[in-house]
Specification:
The complex is a heterodimer of chains A (294) and B (269). Chain A is mainly α. Chain A has a single domain, classed as MetI-like (MetI-like fold). Chain A contains 14 helices and two strands. Chain A has a two-stranded antiparallel ribbon. Chain B is mainly α and 269 residues long. Chain B contains twelve helices and no strands. The interface between A and B is large, with 80 and 82 residues.
């Protein structure tokens, strides 16, 4: 019997691969798939009172979600903030990657390491440092007041959507820089030279050659920034105030002081579904765009 | 390209300023002799650093974070090593789906992972604490560790392993005497970066720690009180220096010895 299995093992790459993968797959199933399935079923229960949950299946929590203006508004706001953050991060990071990929000749890796280094310092601390900068007694306001430019602190800087967008743009920069750089670095420079030789202007070369070829990196960056930021909790909690609140803050409240686990689970499920839908749309649209452009 | 582009260079340098300046404010204000973080600076003091020695809750939280970080990084790097080997070495059915599945925790909003683990943990009747946090961190660190290890293993010449087998070494011998030494820099890099990710992680800890605060949870608790902020700044500055050191070490390890180690092994064989 053992001999038989040894033979199967030695011959079959599938068996070998899945033997090696089994610890990772077991971890994913036990710590992610099963808990998420349970979360899904809890979204169909009812919280009777602080302690009790009624386990009969109902879709009422999803109806509740869409009937509560606050929750729908927060969902839309979360998507809007993530969309803005993704867009701004991409636009601001692209020229940097372009410069390093095409103009830097020595020590490209060093540039890249330096660009991603701040990302490794604690997320909480990076968000916190923006609080120091944007606060009513923070760096910007105190400097402007001391310089005599302002008499009152700028209040829109702190506890607002603007604060959340600025902070998230800073926090997620590394996730745009890496995929963009990788895709730009791969571009064969002779394509660009060919374009120039054929008399295209710099602008045309960029739009018709460089940009389409860098699209895989753009898509990667979009997904890797957009998806996690939709569910961000720390930044809106520290800097958002009431204006910059996002859906996560409400989900936390349902599991905390409001104690409505089914509605919290339903909100989390709706967030996840939205994220998956947007991912599918983005990758399909960009796939078509890539086909058309290249 | 042989030309220069000064506009882009200036832009890139400004972008560096944007990335670095916010982080540098923490160490700057940690030496400032005032409770408010505003300019002009009031005076130089190391008082906030001294204050850290007397905070017992801080020491407890630090110890909790170290325990969670060590356990989570060792388990996730071990799991990731096997998985990375499978992806780098074999072509197999369901490769893409397995890869996507293992990368999922890295993509899904963390709050969803936290909520899901919270629900199952409570309903199994367990108490919240460092154990569920460690499970969550292991789940979250595994994709990171796997990415680093795949990059290391992909450049690996598998004929070295075959040669070792042909020369009569068994599977374990081959692993410990040939593969492991070659993977080692990658493994250490994965361990270090996983540790840092776990050490800094907030959301999973926030939902799952209960009363055993980790270091980020401790800082979160202190951030609400203005008079307690200065020692959080000092703590933050220490963490930044520590993290930077570990990450640079990991980056260096990841790139070092890729060519040289191979030669060594080839010579030994």
């Amino acid at each position: 019997m053992i001999g038989y299995w040894k033979k199967v093992y030695a011959k079959n790459d599938n068996v070998k691969a899945y033997t090696l993968l089994s610890p990772a797959l077991i971890l994913i199933i036990l710590a992610m798939v099963v808990p998420m399935a349970l979360m899904l079923s809890f979204s169909m229960f009812t919280q009777v009172n602080m302690m009790e949950i009624d386990y009969t299946f109902t879709f009422q929590r999803y109806i509740d979600f869409f009937q509560k203006n606050l929750l729908v508004t927060l969902l839309i706001k979360s998507i809007k903030i993530s969309f803005l953050v993704t867009l701004i991060t991409l636009i601001t990071a692209y020229p940097v990657c372009y410069y390093i990929a095409f103009y830097v000749k020595k020590n490209k890796m060093l540039w890249l390491v330096l660009l991603t280094l701040p990302f490794w310092t604690s997320y909480l601390l990076r968000v916190f440092s923006w609080k120091i900068i944007l606060g009513t007694k923070g760096v910007i306001n105190s400097s402007l007041i001391n310089a005599g430019i302002l008499s009152e602190p700028l209040t829109f800087l702190m506890y607002s959507e603007t604060a959340v967008v600025i902070t998230l743009t800073h926090a997620w920069a590394a996730f745009a820089l890496l995929p963009l750089y990788v895709s730009l670095e791969k571009i064969d420079f002779s394509f660009i030279e060919a374009g120039r030789d054929l008399g295209l202007s710099r602008f045309e070369v960029f739009w018709k050659i460089t940009f389409p070829l860098s699209l895989p990196g753009v898509i990667g960056a979009i997904l890797i920034i957009f998806i996690p930021t939709v569910g961000d909790y720390v930044t809106p909690a520290l800097l958002g105030g009431t204006d910059g609140r996002m859906l996560s803050n409400m989900i936390q409240a349902y599991f905390g002081k409001i104690n409505n686990i089914p509605l919290g689970a339903a909100s989390a499920t709706i967030m996840l579904t939205t994220v998956i839908l947007i991912t599918i749309i983005v990758s399909n649209v960009t796939k078509r765009l890539t086909q058309r452009l290249t | 390209m042989n030309e220069k582009n000064n506009t882009l260079l200036i832009y890139t340098l400004l972008y560096f300023v944007f990335l670095y300046v916010p982080v540098l404010f923490l160490p700057i204000f940690s030496f400032n002799d005032a409770n408010y973080m505003s300019f002009p600076l009031a005076g130089f003091t190391t008082e906030h650093y001294e204050e850290m020695w007397s905070k017992r809750n801080l020491h407890k939280a630090l110890w909790a974070s170290i325990k969670v970080g060590v356990v989570a990084s060792v388990i996730s790097t071990t799991i990731a090593l096997f998985a990375a080997k499978a992806f780098a070495r074999y072509k197999f059915r369901g490769e893409k789906i397995s890869y996507g599945g293992i990368m999922m925790p890295f993509l899904i909003p963390e709050i969803i992972l936290a909520v899901a683990i919270l629900i199952i943990w409570i309903n199994l009747g367990f108490k919240l604490g460092l154990v569920p946090v460690t499970i969550g961190h292991t789940l979250f660190c595994t994709p990171f560790a796997m990415l680093i290890l795949i990059a290391r293993i992909e450049g690996f010449d598998f004929s070295l392993e075959e040669a070792s087998r042909d020369l009569g070494e068994n599977a374990w011998g081959t692993f410990f005497r040939v593969s492991f030494p070659l993977y080692l820099p990658g493994i250490v890099a994965a361990l270090l970066l996983s540790f840092i990710i776990s050490f800094d992680e907030f959301i999973l800890a926030f939902f799952l720690t209960g009363s055993d605060a980790t270091l980020p949870m401790y800082m979160w608790g202190q951030m609400r009180f203005v008079q307690k902020l200065p020692h959080v700044l000092a703590l933050g500055a220490v963490i930044i220096v520590f993290t930077t050191f570990i990450v640079l070490l990991a980056f260096w390890l990841r790139n070092v010895g890729q060519g040289k180690a191979k030669k060594d092994i080839a010579l030994k064989l």
